[in-house]
Amino acid sequence: MADVFADSGFTPLHPPLLEYGAVDSAKRRRIQFLDSDGSLVALRPDLTTSVARLVAGRYRDMTGVLRLSYIAPVFREEPAMSGGAREILQAGVELVGGDGALADAEILALLVESLELCGLSVCASTVQVGNVRLVSSLFADLSEDARGEVLQALRLGDVAGGLSHAREAGMAADKVQRAARALTGTDGAVETVEAQELCRAIELARERWPGREKRWGVPNLALVPALPYYTGIVFEAIHPDAGVIASGGRYDLLLGAFGPPRPAIGFAIDVLQLHRALFAEAWQPRTQRPLLLLRASADERATLRCAAALRAGGLAVAMGDVAERAGRAVIQAEVIDERLVKLDDGRVAEAASLGGEIGS
Known about the structure:
The protein is of the alpha+beta class. The chain is built from 11 helices and 16 strands. It has helices at 2-7, 47-58, 100-117, 132-138, 144-155, 159-168, 173-183, 193-208, 271-280, 300-312, 351-359; strands at 11-12, 18-20, 32-34, 40-43, 66-75, 87-96, 127-131, 218-219, 233-239, 243-250, 264-270, 291-295, 316-319, 330-335, 340-343, 348-350. The strands form 3 sheets. Strands 1-5-6-11-10-9-7-8 form an 8-stranded mixed sheet, with helices on both faces. α6 (159-168) packs antiparallel against α7 and α10 (300-312) packs parallel to α11. The chain is elongated and about 85 Å long. The mean pLDDT is 89.
């Protein structure tokens, strides 16, 4: 993934691991503690916010477009015995200063490109695309507090609850019905500038990365991320066996909380969830050599020399067994002497030349 990011001009960044402690607005509990001076500090719970804070400081006077990437963990407190991970490895990019549908399309396409080049099959519904600004405009007649309640229900995936809040807050029945049609995907329900912009971004993204599935990406206006700082296009990559494996979107107001306001968009891939999705599809690395599991002979010195000869011949060798093989092809052999091995099919082979025989 680092190579894919670099090929689009993104520079690796290492955001600070620690930040000042605070109440987490997304209600994901931070891992916080007091330092030796009595100040409350926290392990970073979110890389986008960390990058925004870093850009506001280190790049405060830089007016050009910043292309930043990272592969780093975030940390979130989870209740004991819940099975939730407290350390989550993420890989992602942030495009700071890029605005408009072209920038949106580039980042959306880069996400799909990254997933496919890692080996994931991206079908039509894998990537779902929404627009927070469009959803907010559906409830523009409501007060700010009432609209906030509706959006919070949508963040929890409760479309019916969100519409109920809107109705109770006095929203006209025809507008509630219009919002319901939009959020449930009825064709032609919303014909606004924002909706056209969303469709244009998907089409442009397909131009940038057509992918194996030519029509990847579907609109989903009910998609409202849990993190509250998104302001425009948002998207998720979902796998039936692993759940959400990546998410991102536009957050034009976030940098203004730490310094000069600048438009920005990015995404983060949950690396562990991506691994789960890949193995659910029986994925195997394309160029990875098979692993030879070598059973030792009584002569330890001959075993080590035989292993060295096998490795010199281009094989990956593990002496003994390997419990976690991660989908890797495995060959088993037993040491006869420092020059010869006996394969499980009964063949006897030269250690120095076995790698060439397997490769051919």
